[in-house]
Fold histidine kinase.
Amino acid sequence: MTENSTWELPARIEPAEELPAFHRLWLGFMAARMGVGVVLLVLLGGLMLAGFTSVNGWQLALCGAYLLASVAVRMFARPAMPGRTFDPQWVSTIGIDLLAFSTLQFLQAASLNYAPLYALPVLTASVLGSFLLALGTAAGVTLLLLIDGWLQALLIGDHTGPLVQAGLSGGGYFAVAVLANQLSVRLAREELAARRSRSAIRTQAHVNEVVIETLTEGVLVVGADWQVHAANPAARQLLGWQAREAPASLALISRPGWKPLVALAQRTFADQTSHAAELALELTRGERLHVRVRTRLTPPQDAYADALCVMFLQDLREAEARLRTEKLAAMGRMSAAVAHEIRNPLAAIAQANSLLAEELSDAGQQQLTTMVRQNAQRLSRIVDEILNLARLQQPSTDWLELDLAVDLFAREWSEQNKPGERLRLSLASDAAWTAFDGEHLRRILVNLLDNALRYASPAPGAIVVATQMTGEQARLHVWSNGAPLDPGVQRHLFEPFFSSESRSSGLGLYICRELCDRHGATISYTRAPAPDGSGRDGNQFTIAFRTRATVLPGALPFATIRA
């Protein structure tokens, strides 16, 4: 079976396309005709050299002509399948055979009996021709034998012996013709059935390969000797298998980090039953992959084949991501109605709490109203995020001058959150124009800045917002000097409902990614030096935009559009 494919398996070995049985038989008979011609030429030539007076030059010439005709037919003719009508092609084979053998038989060259040679044209007609051609050839040979027997009877005066012998030989040729023809017909039917079966098997095998190649689930096929017989692209990617060697050249026990797979396969072979387990594989030092593995044992196809263990690998992270996606889909169907129902009483609670706070003077009671206000605000933010997620639709795209739009949004955020000297701007995208909706870009930048402010230190320049041009692509960086993120957190940053804090809804970065996807942009996270050139390491979120390096005709700066 068959990096893509493609399945990344050992190259599939297709058997060489075999010639049809009819073609192979035709080649065999043509080789037999040439062999007979060579034998006759050598035999008569030897007898002539030995001094036999009954052999002369024209007989050798006849044998030579027969040999040349046989070679010419073999070289230039093409086999014709038997049909309902007579094919003139048979004249160049059966006709020449009958003519040459009859001439030698009637003239009794070298006093030899050439009647057995008639078996060659009879078999040729029976195996390669139609039933009528087989019977016609057998009848022609019988007639020639009877004529030869009659001529011999005239010479020796005995009319019984030669004619009876000729009749029996002719009857034998009829029997040979019928039997050979029926066998050839049966062979043709069986070959056709075999070819159809092989074609169906190949088609099914190719379909199976395509299905396995496109599976998101990894598939490994392992033998009892731990050799990897097959591995689809998903399994290669999952196991970090970047080497170019074919699966058959790699043993499962050759990688120390795959020992849990070896143990599970060993249990499968020992118990002769299927197993399932969640395993932790160490791909590289410090990198562990948690997978769910199911095994199936294939029965041996024959006494000479061994059973194989098929292992289905599923990344638990992907399974968790799918679960979250399903959770999000279920949430989306009811989020709008529920959020509206929550929003109205929540607004009443917040308003009543504000009125109550104005009437209370006791410090303890004021603290309680503050707690109510903070939690009401938190609930309001969660409701807004869920509503915003439910309202995400295909946006209307504006062409924004990136530096101008980022400067405006960053300053508005700064006025509301008062980061002071903690925020620095480094805008250097050379007035690039980006295809993005203005309000959506504001939401993304505000979300990233809120996260940066939450984890950044109080030091000056702890948050840096920078733009730059990389080739023909504009990029926006939001960097903060917070602590490095755990690798387990990094893998799930942009997944819905994932958060490292219990007080967060886990939708902020997911909404950022969705908005970027809808505008043809990408967002990513990396641990990188500060974009202001200070050399400090920190957490950096980067957005890569679709851009135009020049101002569009008739386009206005974003500040003018907003005004």
